[in-house]
Amino acid sequence: MIRPRRLRSTPQMRRLVAETRLHAADLVLPLFIKEGLTEPKPLGSMPGIVQHTEASLAEAVAQAAAAGVGGVMLFGIPEHRDATGSQADAPDGILNRAIRIARDAARDATAGTGRPGPVVMADLCLDEFTDHGHCGVLTAGPDGDLVVDNDETLVRYASMALTQAEAGAEVVAPSGMMDGQVAVIREALDDAGHTDVSILAYSAKYASAFYGPFREAVDSTLQGDRRTYQMDSANFREGLREADLDLAEGADMVMVKPAGSYLDVLAAVAERSDVPVAAYQVSGEYAMIEAAAANGWIDRRGAVLESVLGIKRAGADIILTYWALEIAEWIR
Question: What pathway annotation does it carry (predicted)?
Answer without folding.
Answer: Porphyrin-containing compound metabolism; protoporphyrin-IX biosynthesis; coproporphyrinogen-III from 5-aminolevulinate: step 1/4
